[in-house]
Design brief:
Radius of gyration: 16 Å
Bound molecules: zinc ion
Strand order of the largest sheet: 2-1-3-4-5
Order of helices and strands: HHEEHEHEEH
CATH superfamily: Cytidine Deaminase, domain 2
Number of domains: 1
CATH class: Alpha Beta
Helix content: 25-40%
Length: 174
Amino acid sequence: MIPLRGGTGVNDSPLVPSSAPRSLGSRFLTGAGRAGIPKMPVNRTPVDQALIQAARSARIYAYAPYSNYAVGAAVRTDDGRIFTGCNVENASYSLSLCAERVALGSAIAAGARKIIAVAVCTADGGTPCGACRQTLLECALNPETCVVWVVKPDEIVQWYTLAELIPHGFRLQK
Ligand SMILES: [Zn+2]
């Protein structure tokens, strides 16, 4: 989790519920990006409640008998659809699948190619692993504006842009 920057709260944003946590509000209200990372063109992003709820619901189906770390994920595609995934563990451990990549695979299998937002739900507000960040980058319409919501079952913890989560991701130069 990155350090939170300044901010005065969320009360002046009509797009954010007054119950939104302060940490979320500070992200909305600060225009400064992290060093070297262009900030989103808008600093008020509507909370994507449907996407977040989809990730929370998907987490219920997580198959995580080895780690007991259930994860639900949801991606919104550029045509507005939402696809979900949960982590799918395996006795071999290394064959386990992350929720984010399951969700992305579901979207691709349905004909989608680009995503514009992501939500990830865990018990402790964990962020996507490095492999998932790179995989999401592959399909992001614009990493600078692709919002990644990090949530718990009953709380929005934080949001990032995908560019913030993987600032120097691999891109095949054609
Ligand atoms: Zn992952």
